[in-house]
Amino acid sequence: MSASRIVVVGSLAFDNIETPRAKVDLAVGGAASYFAVAASFFAPVAVVGVVGRDFPQAELDFFKARGIDLEGLEIADGQTFRWTGRYHENMNLRDTLDLQLNVFANFSPKLPAAYRTADICFLANIDPALQLKVLSELERPRLVAADTMNHWIENAHDNLVKLLKRVEILVINDQEAFQLSGSDNIIRASRRILEMGPRHVIIKRGEYGAIHFSADSVFAVPAYPLEEVVDPTGAGDTFAGGLIGYLAKQPEVTTAAVRKGMVYGSVMASMVVEDFSFDRLRKIDESDIEKRYNQFVALTQF
Amino acid sequence: MSASRIVVVGSLAFDNIETPRAKVDLAVGGAASYFAVAASFFAPVAVVGVVGRDFPQAELDFFKARGIDLEGLEIADGQTFRWTGRYHENMNLRDTLDLQLNVFANFSPKLPAAYRTADICFLANIDPALQLKVLSELERPRLVAADTMNHWIENAHDNLVKLLKRVEILVINDQEAFQLSGSDNIIRASRRILEMGPRHVIIKRGEYGAIHFSADSVFAVPAYPLEEVVDPTGAGDTFAGGLIGYLAKQPEVTTAAVRKGMVYGSVMASMVVEDFSFDRLRKIDESDIEKRYNQFVALTQF
């Protein structure tokens, strides 16, 4: 079958990033950017988001060259969302040094008419009220997946609970799963989240990979061990891009498909952290993806 | 083929353990105990160690009932080694509250004549000088595996380096690997340790499983996710027991055998943490091991 179209809503940003070994300013980032670029290797992607007038035309051209539909990308007066962060020596830890929402502050997603029939939707980490709004504008998606973060778990709990009833796949990190569920045991946490609505809970564990829970399956995939992680920013959204991109090519969201999708998500994440921004993904093609996929097979088979 | 005989040298102890949810005194522990009980499900095991007169006859009888050869277990005047520890809410972390070496203080391993022809040797975490002494008393082992800890890496570095030249499989945890190698990247750390002698480096990562490096292979196995970990004490030694026990049944230490052995090690470790001491292993049989092994297949296949 041909791949279903994916609509993604989320942030596009400039990131100023300092790691223990390097520093970069104005790297293109944001959850929707990372997701869209990763997913575009598998399926057609359409973006809903906002950037300022300072967003480079060359980057918009890169998205278009990857077949990413930008009709839903608003270009607003003002500056693009900016995040400044510093990673610890242990790159699982980072501090946000500065956050300027800029044009993102008043963002209200609007779906172009052509997006409303999309089969698949990824609601990246934004206010659950906006995630719900996007969902209400879609006619009949066959797959809805979402991410969220501690801020919304604390401050938008009711809308998040409402959203979860309509989400098939929730992709969050371990700390968020513990916070959302009120349990610090990964099995009990997942079971409680499954009771909140999603049929699949996928928990990201940074350098240790990801683990999946559904009613009848548990699946763990390790992260690909790398000699040098240049920049972990966007790894989670890139993982989601590979996962949902792979699923867009499958006729059904079976457990087997979710497992393979998680491996493709891990493949894409393992490549994106090899450079700043999604620069690594600018240089790869399908054969690099298949090669890394085979390395995951070799990494895990016994 | 029938399984090769394994000689293990290491501690036998009484543990006083406090976890966030329970407390137990005088639990039978020690690296050699955990290793021997786990390995005994796969191969004949012979123990070299020392206990005091206070060590219960019922426990010695349990070892014997599992086919464990105790000819090399010295019963000395005085008290058995005692360790008192408290686990944090995050059970990957623990504090040693008290340590009484007792009869272990003057322990000098002596191999009974019948042990010298053993094919396989596991040198559990003790002074590298004693590990070297045991090794010198073995005629021609086909497989030597070892563990160590931060204390010896700091304080017995020269003997440890000497030992590593003669070890085929080193089983240590991630922090020890970083300390031993001087690198905090798991690939660079493993490469440096491989240069020190071992053909296989297996790094234990607690609740995240274990990862194996050799010249031509990287293999990662997740830990089995458990709803309740009662007591993580001895998980690493139990892992080593399952691993080396499995290898004792194989004609050669191939990469494929090491991978399967790591899964069996993970199987045994996932069961031992379900109760204090190795009480869980008192209640299982080969069919429980195969059942959990199949759960590992289900956990990891895609």
Describe the structure.
The structure is a homodimer of 302-residue chains. Chain A is of the alpha/beta class. The first copy, chain A, has one domain (6-300): Ribokinase (UDP-N-acetylmuramoyl-L-alanine:D-glutamate ligase, 3-Layer(aba) Sandwich). Chain A is 35% helix and 24% strand. The first copy, chain A, contains ten helices and 13 strands. In chain A, the strands form two sheets. In chain A, strands 5-4-1-8-9-10-11-12-13 form a nine-stranded mixed beta sheet, with helices on both faces. In chain A, helix 1 runs parallel beside helix 8 (235-248) and helix 8 packs across helix 9. Chain A binds chain B through residues 89-90, 184-188, 205, 208-209, 211, 217-222, 225-228, 256, 259-260, 262-263, 298-302, and chain B through 89-90, 184-188, 205, 208-209, 211, 217-222, 225-228, 256, 259-260, 262-263, 298-302.
What is the CATH homologous superfamily assignment of chain A? Ribokinase
| Sheet with the most strands: spatial strand order of chain A | 5-4-1-8-9-10-11-12-13
Task: Provide the domain count of chain A.
Answer: 1
Regions with little confidence, pLDDT below 50 for 5+ residues of chain A: none
| Number of strand segments of chain A | 13
